[in-house]
TrEMBL record:
<comment type="similarity">
    <text>Belongs to the bacterial solute-binding protein 3 family.</text>
</comment>
<dbReference type="InterPro" id="IPR001638">
    <property type="entry name" value="Solute-binding_3/MltF_N"/>
</dbReference>
<dbReference type="GO" id="GO:0030288">
    <property type="term" value="C:outer membrane-bounded periplasmic space"/>
</dbReference>
<keyword id="KW-0732">Signal</keyword>
<dbReference type="InterPro" id="IPR018313">
    <property type="entry name" value="SBP_3_CS"/>
</dbReference>
<dbReference type="Pfam" id="PF00497">
    <property type="entry name" value="SBP_bac_3"/>
</dbReference>
<protein>
    <submittedName>
        <fullName>Arginine ABC transporter substrate-binding protein</fullName>
    </submittedName>
</protein>
<feature type="domain" description="Solute-binding protein family 3/N-terminal">
    <location>
        <begin position="10"/>
        <end position="181"/>
    </location>
</feature>
Amino acid sequence: MSLSASAAQTIRFATEASYPPFELVDANNQIVGFDVDLANALCKEIDATCTFTNQAFDSLIPGLKFRRFDAVMAGMDITPEREKQVLFSTPYYDNSALFVGQQGKFTSIDQLKGKKSGRAERHHPQKFITDKHPEITTVPYDSYQNAKLDLQNGRIDAVFGDTAVVTEWLKSNPKLAAVGR
């Protein structure tokens, strides 16, 4: 991102605040997280003010193209399709993925054969699970939060998600555990 304070006194950022620890809404209804901290540091460096808007993930690129905001700070994988539409910064976080299930129910990925695993459609790990583990039935979700709710309520057996996100779940929910780690 190349901006100067004279070009933009206020930089309008958009994100989907449902991807902790990177973007989330706190108890005070404020958008917070690693990406917000990074955006604020960038704004401080160029003496600009940041504002943040919570948007549905699928509306981030269209909103940027229609200039509803100036930049997006979100856990967004760089894909050829997206690169045709917008410019990306150099990646600043390398993420991995893992399965999470009910504590004590599964100890290996092999035990998920024939089971239902949720995955967030927006993230690249979905390709890994469908390519490398076709024996696991995948259930697409629009967000990790909805997948987590279905996991907690027994509607699916596991969730395949970004390690940073599901690790946050494990910290706050002792009934969940990593599978095959």
